[in-house]
Amino acid sequence: MGKVYSAQNVAAYIIYELNDVKEFVNACAIQQILADVNTMWQHVFGHSAFSEQSHDLATAGYVIKEVAEEYRIHGTAHILSPAREWFLKYGEFQLVERPYAVPDFSAKEEIVMTKILTAYRLRAYNDINVAV
Questions:
Q1: What is the phi/psi pair of residue 14, to 5°?
Q2: Dihedral Cα 23, 24, 26, 29, nearest 10 deg
Q3: Is the torsion defined by CA of 70, 87, 54, 105 positive or negative?
Q4: Which end of the chain is least crowded, N or C, by CB within 10 Å?
Q5: Domain boundaries, the chain
Q6: d(Cα 34, Cα 73) in Å, to the nearest integer?
Q7: Under 8 Å between Cβ of 75 and 30
Q8: pTM above 0.90, yes or no
Q9: Other beta carbons within 10 Å of 18
Q10: Model confidence over 2-46: pLDDT tens digits?
Q11: Can you give the three-state secondary structure of 36-48, one letter per residue?
């Protein structure tokens, strides 16, 4: 059984992984990949991957509203690093800005994520070849 994660954390994982292999990723690509993650999670584990409410990409224009709002400022530009969250420890008076953490996937979840990102990279590669 797969765990349920925050979509912001999964988006951070996607950005780090795709930047690591020098693959283009923008706000639109993140939403498409989140849709793929949710579909695969439903198929493999029988439940949604995200703690947030998910939407239909075709009708709403996004899968996870909170992620769409966070990355909207990037538009169609490449995203180099994940969004940041504000963190305040109880009893402290200083806000700390930090990037969203990546999920601690199980081995099976990691395999699912690898397959999803590989499929995304192959689609992107094929789209480039068709355009040329």
A1: -60, -45
A2: -70
A3: positive
A4: C
A5: 7-131
A6: 18
A7: no
A8: no
A9: 21
A10: 899 999 999 999 999 999 999 999 999 999 999 999 999 999 999
A11: HHHHHHHHHHCCC
